[in-house]
Fold:
Amino acid sequence: MTTTKDPRHARCRLLCASIALALSAGSALADEEVQLQSITITAQKRSEEMIKVPISAMAMDQAALDEKGVKDVSDIAHLVPGITFQATDDYGDTNIAIRGIYSDVGSATTGIYIDDVPVMARPYDSIGGNPYPKVFDLDRVEVLRGPQGTLFGAGAEGGVLRFITPEASLHKFSGYASGELSMTRNGNPGYETGAAIGGPIEDGKVGYRASVWHRQEGGYADRLDPNSGAILARRDNGSETSAAHLSLKFAPTADLVITPSFFYQTSHAGDVGLFLESAGTYNVSSQISQPHDDRFLLSTLSVDYDFGSFTFKSVSSYMDRKIQQSWDATGYELGSITGSATVPFDPNYLVVVQFDAMQRGVTQEFRFTSADLPSDRFTWVGGVFFRESTAHYHSRYVDPNFDALSNYVAGTTGPDGSLNYWGEAPINGIYSYLEDYPTTETDLAAFGDMSYALSKSLKLAGGVRVARSGFSYTDHQDGPWGPAAPFYRAGSQSQTPVTPRLNLSWQIDQARMAYASIAKGYRAGGANEPVPTGTAGGCGVDLASLGLNQVPPAYGSDYLWSYEAGLKGKFLDNTVLLESSVFWINWNEIQQSVYLSNCGYNYIANLGHAVSRGFDVQAQWIANRHLEFSATSGYTDAHLKDNILLDGQLLSKAGDHLAVPEWAFTLGGEYHFTTGNNTQNFARVDYDFNGSYNRQGSIDTFGSDPLIRYTPPIRLTSLRVGTRFDNWELSAFSNNVFNKDTSVYRFRSTINTTDLRDNRLRPMTVGLSAKYHF
Structure:
């Protein structure tokens, strides 16, 4: 917390002044009338205009995503108040927080959906997090803030992010194509190309929608030899992603619609974006390239039948995902064994970690929804849901010279030095450590939600979800650097969470609504992996200081209660669209990481509770037929409420803020005008701000590292100018205009306190793009 003059008040005055300017502007537009349109969303399992849905939500259709140059989920997070997108580890994995409900350990706090299918995944030691689809040929993106446990279940504790794909049309052809060329400062060029087309195969009976897309981003970081500092590879961190989507629609009768769809995405990163600070801003220190590959396939079958008074929907899905990573772990292994990142008998000593993750999941939902007529006072939706997710994580430390290392440590030269010193020889002669960690998660739930119109303008809604969730795992570790003998462990956990909600809404008029709600959310518990406690591992010292001889075998679920009130609607003859809400969240039994600083391991424990309170607001204003403005802001005060002590050690401190910024806001403006032949020209500027925060607790809490706990504020400016004519749009753009190199994640090696590494914003990128719609 700063003790100098707080800049938040100035930011608040700026935001309030912007909104006041919008609301005080005259409603008459010069020359011609232009009005804002609200997007239709399915946040409550039925199609509704967003300004009439009594929850805090934000949606962007494909046109808005293109307008702001959105390419992936990190760009979305910059634009939506109350949502934070953060790196979680030194391998580049990421996580999402909504309204301060953030955790980089345990199961997901934010639900990630492609259409009606959850795809979020429980990471392994913060590796292999959620699969995020790239942004191309989407109908819209929906962000639902606050717990959505009644309709979306486990993992929707803080909110839900949904990627909604376009439906196949039975009557009309449409298409979309795009291309882009870009150049990153001091980097290689990049490009993007994609096309989508859809329409009827047999009018009224069979339709399709198909898209393909590929993007390559040029690398901009050099890889240096960690010993000599020599450049081993230039611009080694380039990446490429390909995606394909196919959706079919069959309507054999007027009441029955069958929709199979397939989504495939594969991505490859040439190296991690983890830069050695002492070697310069964008330099990676590693003997080898450290690639990351992620491939996932999602197959879905939806069946809809209209019974007249209600509709039935079945959604079945299968997801198959594979992740492969490798990285240079030489300093980590040598440091924990010898206290140094090098050994004199081999200056090029190399240890490589090979990591594979296979995640598979099936879901099935049966849903019944009332057919809502304007005269109906009572509406409802209900159903059952099942999900089973399996994962298999496999880690291998490849160290073919481990015998020589053992002899060096033991001070002997015998051929069996490793066996004498460690108690076990390397597995197959090359593996110093192995771990297999398969898991299974299940979720079976019944849910119901209903609303009743107390009057023409007042509506009361409520619902509840009852689930039976389970988690099980087995853990096999082996190798001389690990437990020094084959180690097996298994465990399971189950629970029966109940997540209700209650909502009261007041439809002030057809264009404005006020509401208040109470809702509960939760995420499932799990189990900890064992850590080495012997001399080689070093964790025994940490655990002993906590009064433990091993990490706790399991941790429980955490849960929260959210209280929210909001106002949304159109104002000033539909020239201003305003959505705002205030919230208070009590978060209990929080799954938190306990970092063991001597050995670099961590475990998860349920530590105390927190309060998250604040507001979010978003506004669009059409000033006149040439000028449009947009502004969003979110304030989140999320902090711990308890001091947590374990054997005299302060693990968690009351008042410490959770790892999310307090303030975030965006400002955008577009000027457009028409020239001859009905050509529309435009210029747009966007500014995004995310405030600073601490990734760890106060420096007097156990395991807190003063060199890596602080994350600075992020300030990004982007520009886009272009022209629209017929069905074309041509534009030039610049992202990160001022070339900010802000650190978004910082990591310190356990070997050397000066060996600081971090992820940073991508340097300034400029480019040209072309889009075509029909």
Q: What stands out?
A: The chain has eight helices and 46 strands.
